[in-house]
Amino acid sequence: MGLLIAAGALLFGFGAAYVASDDVRYLTRAGFEETEILLGRVPMNRIVADTSFSDEVRAAAELVVEARAYALALEMDPGETYTTFSDVGRDTLLLVLTASRRDCLCPETWRYPFVGRVPYRGYFDPAAGEAAARAYAARGFDVHLRPSAAFSTLGWFNDPLLSTAIGGDPVELAALVFHEIAHNTLWIPDATDFNESFAQWVGYRAAESFFLARGDTALAIRAADRWHDEQLLGRYYDALLGHLDSLYATSPRGDDLEAGREAVAAWARDTLATPFGAGLRTIDATRLGERPINNAALLGVRLYRTGLELFEQWDWQHGRQLGVALYTLKQLMDGARGDQAFTRLRTMVETVGPALSD
Fold first, then answer.
1. Residues 46, 53: Cα–Cα separation, whole Å
2. Which domain holds residue 297?
3. What is the dihedral of CA 169, 172, 173, 174, to 10 degrees?
4. Which of 231, 255, 287, 304 has its CA 20 to 30 A from that of 223?
């Protein structure tokens, strides 16, 4: 009841401005969707024992419950992350729009209450998302509109696991759980790239360890292969974005800009056709190389794949004992902000010396 009252008050406050403001209409729709999600929450433990749920949902719930317990054994902080489940009744939760100028890796940003500016906008209404993408494209922007299976309130509410996040690879589901719990465990202010890359490391490494503990060697190997590919892609995208940064620094226009972008795309195709691309274990290098240059689609690359080799080195320097590596990393990051996070990690990795894997 309290949730309904809060949502009602929020919507009442928006009411007067609704007809005059696209932003208010957007936030109102998001408020309705989040209220419906929260009202539909069902405890995970109940789902595991309730045969009225499908085998697929019950299997996912059981995996999440076990993954949360494993995170606790690693002395992570599961909090209330994914203690409940909510069925949104459709395959795609929302569409996420990113946009960038074609001559710069410069994200368009949107301002949200409490959160501030972020480089993306989610649309629960597909038609509205498609219209916004067309409007940016008409202004000459690179645009990227992708489906998303998750919707976070950034801690304002107790977000459930959504039905759109299950039904696929159990490795990805486990990695998602550990990724989000990693954010509860360690969060550095003003260091989004560190936080997301740290969570990528924890997500796949914890999934590997979790499946090994379960006795499922095949899924453990798949998780290890996914982490291997994340690191390889991190090196690939570092080089790709470096080429683009160099191109855009010359301020090309018109045909020169398009020719430069095509040259970078050709480099990408050629690189992925070499043994470098053949090193990918879970990703089709040929399909990846066929993607055109799109600044908007590339904007999230650095966010999740920055300095992954540092986390890998840290892992090996702690004997690949993930719980120990996490504990000591938290100690190292005490009081860190912004760029200090990667500076401290890099300095310590270099001070300790070569990893045990070398």
1. 10
2. 219-352
3. 120
4. 287
